[in-house]
Specification:
This protein has 483 residues and is mainly alpha-helical. The chain is built from 23 helices and five strands. The strands form two sheets. Strands 1-2-3 form a three-stranded mixed beta sheet. Strands 4-5 form a two-stranded antiparallel ribbon. It starts with a helix and ends with a helix.
């Protein structure tokens, strides 16, 4: 099987990971056995065995794509990860550093000296250097900038001047331009002279003499139209364009909506300054989704799967501390009704049901609202309608499931004289808490957005606090009054 076929085979990455871990395990076992043996040339034999195992591992790594090596590094404990990293080809270092997560990249950079870091970064494209530069030591960045030619240095500085989540921070400078007054045949000859095209090139950018963008020429139009036709007659004069200051989220949605492969980036005067490509946008979407998932779980930043216990624990302290505070408040709400619970022990068994149902229903509303905010679907015009819809759903669910739970409660405690009032309390408490959870699920992410954070940031923590505390309060208050 050829290398290209191997890269694209099913489960290739997982198979490669298993092979690498098997080689490392076998190496440790064999070297342990050799180390225990005595002999006149013990050190020489041990060194030869170690070298032989490393050669086998290096041959395997040399066949892998940088993205596959990055996947393997992510999945290995730190000791094995550093062993593999030492065997990777030096000319692949930069590509692999871009592929791994921020946490793993930090652990790899710590093992490299300045010369290695400069060489790894210098082999990358301009936009890739800008992506890697924030994670490099300042002295390495200064040395790297000195090693670049003037044009490339200016492009890197331009990329670094934009925010990471902006179009300017994601665009690259490798694109092909053409004039509108040339023929398609001339354009094709120009491409043949280039010999190679930038990756993901599906169109040429048509510009005036001053660099102002006036349209795009899809490659497929060049192939199907008369070679004698001029570019101006065939080009698209209303392309989707972006500005460096545009939000990357908006650009990602546009790429999905219009099925874009590449798109031009222009400045305020319409001059072409860069382009966005689909691979960069996919990486951005994936990274943002992972960040949102971590924020929902209460993690402040990406965590290395095999980081030290101390480092991982510190990463989780923030929301654990907040959760502890909210739990204490919820416990004080319950404590305020100790007398009622003491008189009717069934309340202690039933109140978690009310809080749990509210939490689940609120999560459904919250997930819907977070998605709507992320996609910019929710606006001032439809916000109230969405809130009323969610409130209506909560009323319907409260009547249905609250009624069912009321019947269940009655049959569970029918021997008690307060069985019927208790069932009514259960139904009313569930209805009210589901209504409250719908409002909390709607307002929690909206409040967080107004505070300048991502809607997923801490929304579930806030929702849980509201549904638990108010669920206990509503149920126990009704029980105290009616029973």
């Amino acid at each position: 099987m050829s290398q290209i076929q191997e890269i694209h085979s099913k489960d290739h990455v997982e198979d490669s990971l298993r092979q690498v871990t098997d080689i490392i395990s076998r190496q440790k076992l064999v070297e342990s056995l050799v180390h225990k043996q005595e002999g006149p040339r013990h050190d020489l034999v041990e060194a030869l065995v170690h070298k032989q195992n490393l050669v086998e591992l290096q041959k395997k790594l040399d066949l892998l794509h940088p993205a596959d090596v990055a996947y393997i590094l992510e999945a290995l404990p730190i000791e094995d990860r550093l062993l593999v990293w030492e065997l990777v080809k030096a000319d692949c270092d930069g590509d692999i550093l871009l592929e791994v997560s921020d946490a793993v990249r930090e652990s790899l950079i710590e093992t490299m000296d300045n010369r290695e870091l400069v060489a790894a970064a210098a082999s990358l494209d301009t936009d890739e250097i800008a992506d890697l530069a924030p994670d490099l030591p300042k002295d390495v960045v200064q040395e790297l900038m000195k090693s670049l030619d003037a044009a490339k240095r200016a492009q890197v500085e331009s990329s670094l001047s934009y925010a990471e989540d902006s179009v300017g921070g994601l665009m690259d400078y490798d694109f092909v331009t053409i004039r509108a007054d040339v023929t398609l045949e001339a354009a094709l000859r120009y491409l043949r002279l280039m010999g190679d095209l930038p990756q993901h090139t599906d169109k040429l950018f048509v510009v005036e003499r001053n660099g102002r963008l006036i349209g795009t020429l899809p490659l497929k139009r060049m192939l199907v139209h008369d070679p004698e036709a001029h570019v101006a007659a065939v080009m698209s004069d209303d392309p989707v364009v972006f500005h460096p200051s545009d939000e990357a989220d908006d650009a990602a949605q546009a790429f999905e909506r219009y099925d874009l492969v590449t798109a031009p980036v222009v400045d305020a005067k319409g001059v072409l300054v860069g382009r966005l490509t689909v691979d960069v946008m996919l990486d951005f979407i994936r990274a943002k989704a992972e960040a949102d998932m971590l924020q929902v779980a209460g993690l402040r930043e990406e965590e290395d799967m095999f980081s030290t216990v101390w480092k991982a624990a510190k990463n989780r302290w923030l929301w654990l501390g907040i959760n502890l505070c909210t739990a204490l408040i919820a416990s004080r709400v319950v404590g305020a009704f100790e007398g009622s619970i003491a008189q009717l022990s069934a309340l202690a068994a039933l109140m978690p049901i009310v809080a749990g149902m509210g939490g689940n229903a609120g999560s459904q509303t919250l997930t819907l609202v977070v998605r709507g905010l992320a996609l910019n679907i929710i606006s001032k015009k439809n916000a109230n309608r969405l809130m009323l819809k969610e409130l209506g759903i909560s009323v319907l669910n409260g009547v249905v499931w609250g009624g069912i739970m009321g019947v269940v409660t009655y049959f569970l405690y029918r021997d008690l004289p307060q069985a019927l009032p208790l069932a009514l309390v259960m139904t009313a408490a569930m209805l009210l808490n589901l209504m409250l959870s719908a409002l909390a699920g709607y307002w929690a992410p909206n409040i967080i957005v107004r505070l300048g954070h991502d809607p997923a940031f801490g929304a579930h923590v806030l929702l849980t606090f509201i549904t638990d505390s108010m669920g206990f309060f509503i149920f126990l208050s009704l029980a105290t009054v009616l029973l």
